[in-house]
Design a protein that fits this description.
3 helices; alpha+beta; about 140 residues; globular
């Protein structure tokens, strides 16, 4: 048997992506014994049916992990990001979560998250150059 080759592939077969991601998931489940996992997909839908915002994340290990929270520029400043995050937190607590985590590069988003009870627990300075990436968490009451 010859050694495998390391390759870069911008468009790999879907089963390769599933194999790698699923392999990590199976390892984490075997290691921790925690198998319950939920996707969190919440969208802001305009009256004409367009997606104008949303929150993407997951629940595992009694934590909500927010991967993406976005509201279209035309709809910002109206509290929709706060509402989306509140809905995600409500769903998470119904699933037994005790906390949430997220990260951001955006100083405006950072201030919003802190206003909503999230605390910074780490900062990656100069990522990207000239900016910081903040890691936040919130314990639910």
């Amino acid at each position: 048997m010859s050694d495998p080759e390391i390759v870069f592939d911008d468009h790999p077969p879907e089963d390769w992506i599933e194999r790698v991601g699923g392999g990590v998931d199976r390892h984490n489940i075997a290691f921790t014994g925690i198998a319950e996992w939920h996707l969190v997909r919440i969208f802001l839908k305009s009256t004409d049916g367009d997606c104008v915002g949303g929150l993407l994340g997951s629940i595992w290990g009694d934590w909500l992990e927010v991967d993406s929270l976005w509201v279209d520029e035309a709809w910002r400043g109206r509290g929709y990001a706060t509402q989306l995050l509140a809905e995600a937190e409500r769903f998470a607590t119904q699933k037994g979560c005790s906390a949430a985590t997220l990260d951001t590069h955006n100083p405006d988003a950072l201030r919003l998250y802190q206003k909503l009870g999230y605390e910074v627990f780490g900062v990656l300075d100069d990522y990207p150059p000239g900016w910081n990436k903040s890691y936040l968490r919130k314990r639910f009451a």
